[in-house]
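**User:**
Make up any protein.

**Assistant:**
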Amino acid sequence: MEKPTEKTAIQKLQEKLFEFLRSRRDDRGLMADMRCVLVDGKRHRAWPYLGRFGGIGDTHLARTVQTVAGLYATHPEETSEGDFGALCRALLREEERKQLATAEGVGPISRRFQHLLAAEDEEIFDRIIRLVLRAKAEDIPVNYQRLFEDLLNWQYRTERVRTEWARSFWAPMTEPEEAS
C-alpha cells in the first residue's frame, strides 16, 4: 500500500488562505482592507491579514497571494469549474464569439487575452486584475483556487499554463483526435 503524499507547504498555505477568505467574506472592513492590496500605495493595509500567508513583499508567491486575495475581496463570486482561459471565453460578447468560431478576426477580449498570454513574469498580475474586474462587471464567477495555482506556476511552467488557458479559450470543445 502506498503512503499518501504529504501536502506541500504551498498547498497548506493556499488552503489556509482560502479558508480565511471564505470565512471572512462578509466582514466588510476586512474586505475593504484586502482590496487595498491591489493599489500600490495602499498595499500595507492588507499586510496584517496576508502576512501569515506569505503575502508581504514582491516575491512571486507574495504577489500571487496579494492578487488572489485582493481580487477575492473585490469579486468573491467563485466557481470550481474551468481555468482563466474559460473565464475569458465567458467574457466574449456574441459578435466576438461568432468571429472566433469563423476565424474572421480578433475582437477586443481576444486581443486582451493574447496580451495576457504574452505577459512576462510580473506583468501577469496587472493583466489578470483587469480581466477579473471585467468578470465582476458581468457577474462571471472566478475559479480562484485554479487561478492561484496557475499564477504560482506562471513563474516556472509558463508555457504549460499558457497552453491550457489558450486551449480553454480558443478550442474548448475540441477533443484530441484518436490515433488511427
Remarks:
- The domain at 77-171 is CATH 1.10.520.40 (Peroxidase; domain 1).
- Confidence is low (pLDDT under 50) at residues 175-180.
- The CA atoms of residues 1 and 152 lie 32 Å apart.
